[in-house]
Amino acid sequence: MAILEIKEYPDPILKQKAKPVEQIDDSIRRLLDDMVETMYAAPGVGLAAPQVGVSLRVIVVDASPKDEGAKLMKLINPVITHSEGSTSDEEGCLSIPEISGEVVRAKKISVEALDENGKPVSFTTDTFLARVIQHEIDHLNGILFIDRLSRLKQDLIKRKLKKRAKKEEPEKL
Ligand SMILES: [Zn+2]
Asked: Do 43 and 8 meet the contact criterion of CB atoms below 8 Å apart?
C-alpha cells in the first residue's frame, strides 16, 4: 500500500465529474487500499478518488471517530437512491485545508454501490456516515463543500484561498 498525494483546491481535477468504474480488477482494489491508507494517514473520515488524482467513481469512508458502530467501507460507483430530511453541520475537506463551513445535507440517505469484489451493497443511514457519504459523492460530481455554502461565505473563502495560493507560488527569478 502507498500513501497518495492529496490534490488541493484549486486543482482542476476536483471540478471534474468522475467516470464510472467499468471493471473491478486488482488495479481498482490497489487504488482502494491506497486510498484507505491515505485517508487514515491524513487523518480523515472519507476520501474520493479525484482527491488523489484519479477521476473514477470510487470512495472510501470510515466515520467511526464520530459514529459508533461505523466501519471502513470501500464503495465503487456509489449512488444515493433515496434521501430525506435535512440537517446542518460544520464540514471540512482534506482538499481544502484549514477551511470549514456549515453545510446543509439530507438527514437520511439510502445508498447502492459495489464492493471491491463487485458485489452489490445497499444500506440506509441517518448518522454522521450519511453526511460523509454525501460529501464524498459530491467529490465524484466535481462539487466541493464550499460550493454548497452561501454566496457570501463562498466569496469570502475563495478570496482567502486565492490569496493563499498566490503566497505559495515560488518566487519568479
Ligand atoms: Zn472533501
From this structure: no
